């Protein structure tokens, strides 16, 4: 298993370009199941989760080529309806194929996604929505079987603005004749990128003044050409990397408004932020000030940036509270940060941090994607040699992470210890 060997203590400086968003690319690739026509999707990041999605599309009857950041998807065979556990277990978002399959085939059989490192992660909100649209939901030998004689438009009020449920149900509604009205949907930029992609396939989707989303189903969707939006989580991670190492970084090809609350908090922490249309520059604070955060659905503080923020606050002068209000078990990086000299106590869903003057290098283990990135940031700040194990988690979401960090002056090498 790959490790990162990091010689920390260097201020990161320079410019980094942000690639396409993983969390937008995944549902947009899945949306190609809604048509037999050719789809061309640009700015797709080269990541493990994208490769898994390509395998999923192929297993369901698509032909996919992926070259130079462009995925071209065409029909290979008739659309299949079953997705086995070995693909679902690699990535929870596999379950998002339910919406398109149900819409087109009135039938989908998908292994029930299990728990994952950051909690139980149920799909009850998705299933409740499918039931309301007219599907029968049966659990059979670990598979969720969704079947419908006919799907009918309805009003769906999500009990929580789940990103995945919003995307799954929206995709389904695109092919249901009549008006399906959604309330309390997720408003993450990735959801709107999916909506734009669906619209370019011919879907009729609009939002009213109350923020309800109305989907007027069409008989058929056509192919699309779409370029995936910038990855705001990568953007945030690099900005925090600049702050934690005392550096000065310009992040290019991003959408500054997508990270508004983070930029505000970075300024409160003492960083100097300047922005342009598609770039953000950060000059690190001399002294990091403590800034409490609570994760929340967009436009609140992104749960995916909680771990990097926690890493930053370990070096703040004073006490900070980092509250995780989206996922139930998302502090696995905290004990690893403690191994690097951080002072963190977890009480329920709150990490109570007393800032320390410096972090010390150590061997630490990533146990999920964003937690792993946070450990890399901490190691970049800690003077001396650290080792971050289980890099495969980080590879799920950060394209060319070590190359980009190296270009900013970091000393980071990927290493694969010989397995005995
Ligand atoms: C997506 C993102 C993930 C991000 C998360 C929250 C992708 C591929 N992943 O995940 O990076 O951290 O949004 O911004 O886009 N929940 C239920 N029942 C459901 C669905 C969700 O209880 O049916 C709960 C989850 O357990 C979690 C919370 O709702 O506690 C948020 O989940 P959700 O917004 O659905 O996240 P994902 O779409 O899985």
Notes on the protein architecture:
It contains 14 helices and 24 strands. By secondary structure, it is of the alpha/beta class. A 4-stranded mixed beta sheet has the order 22-23-1-24. A 4-stranded mixed beta sheet has the order 2-15-17-16. Strands 4-5-3-14 form a 4-stranded mixed beta sheet. A hairpin with a 5-residue loop joins strand 12 (204-207) and strand 13 (213-217). Helix 1 (22-31) packs parallel to helix 2, helix 6 (163-173) packs parallel to helix 7 (189-200) and helix 8 (232-244) packs parallel to helix 12 (369-381). The structure holds uridine-diphosphate-N-acetylglucosamine.
N- to C-terminal separation? 12 Å
Radius of gyration: 22 Å
Bound molecules: uridine-diphosphate-N-acetylglucosamine
Output the strand order for the largest sheet. Answer: 22-23-1-24
Write down the overall geometry: globular
- Would you identify the CATH architecture of the largest domain? Alpha-beta prism
Helical content band: 25-40%
CATH superfamily of the largest domain: Enolpyruvate transferase domain
For the record, the CATH class of the largest domain is Alpha Beta
Biggest sheet layout = 4 strands, mixed
Number of domains: 2
- Per the CATH scheme, the topology name of the largest domain is UDP-n-acetylglucosamine1-carboxyvinyl-transferase, Chain
């Amino acid at each position: 298993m790959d490790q990162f060997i990091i010689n920390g203590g260097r201020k990161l400086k320079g410019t980094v370009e942000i690639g396409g968003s993983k969390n937008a690319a995944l549902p947009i690739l899945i949306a190609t199941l809604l048509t037999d026509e050719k789809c061309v999707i640009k700015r797709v990041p080269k990541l493990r989760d994208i490769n898994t999605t390509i395998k999923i599309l192929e297993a369901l009857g698509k032909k996919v080529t992926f070259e130079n950041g462009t995925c071209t998807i065409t029909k290979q065979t008739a659309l299949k309806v079953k997705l086995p556990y070995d693909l679902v277990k690699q990535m929870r978002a596999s379950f998002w194929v339910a919406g398109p399959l149900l819409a087109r085939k009135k039938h989908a059989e998908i292994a029930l996604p299990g728990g994952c490192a950051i909690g139980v992660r149920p799909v009850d909100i998705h299933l409740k929505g499918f039931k309301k649209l007219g599907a029968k939901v049966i659990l059979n030998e670990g598979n969720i079987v969704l079947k419908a004689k006919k799907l009918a438009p309805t009003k769906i009020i999500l009990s929580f603005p789940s990103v995945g449920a919003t995307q799954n149900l929206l995709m389904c509604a695109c092919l249901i004749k009549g008006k399906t009205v959604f309330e309390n949907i997720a408003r993450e930029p990735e959801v709107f990128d999916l909506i734009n992609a669906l619209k370019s396939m011919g879907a009729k989707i609009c939002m009213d003044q109350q923020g309800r989303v109305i989907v007027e189903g069409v008989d058929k969707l056509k192919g699309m050409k779409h370029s995936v939006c910038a990855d705001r989580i990568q953007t945030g991670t690099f900005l925090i990397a600049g702050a934690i190492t005392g550096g000065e970084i310009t992040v290019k090809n991003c959408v500054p408004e997508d990270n508004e609350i983070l930029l505000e908090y970075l300024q409160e922490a003492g960083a100097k932020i300047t922005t342009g249309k598609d770039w953000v520059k950060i000059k690190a604070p001399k002294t990091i000030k403590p800034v409490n955060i609570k994760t929340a659905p967009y436009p609140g503080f992104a749960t995916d940036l909680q771990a990097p923020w926690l890493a930053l606050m370990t070096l703040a002068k004073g006490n900070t509270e980092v509250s995780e209000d989206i996922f139930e078990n998302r502090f696995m990086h905290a004990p690893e940060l403690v191994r690097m000299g951080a002072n963190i106590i977890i009480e329920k869903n709150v990490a109570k941090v007393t800032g320390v003057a410096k972090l010390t290098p150590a061997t630490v283990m990533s146990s999920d994607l964003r937690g792993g990135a946070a450990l890399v940031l901490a190691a970049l700040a800690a003077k001396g040699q650290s080792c971050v194990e289980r890099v495969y988690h980080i590879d799920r979401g950060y394209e060319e992470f070590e190359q980009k960090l190296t270009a900013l002056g970091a000393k980071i090498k990927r290493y694969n210890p010989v397995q005995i």
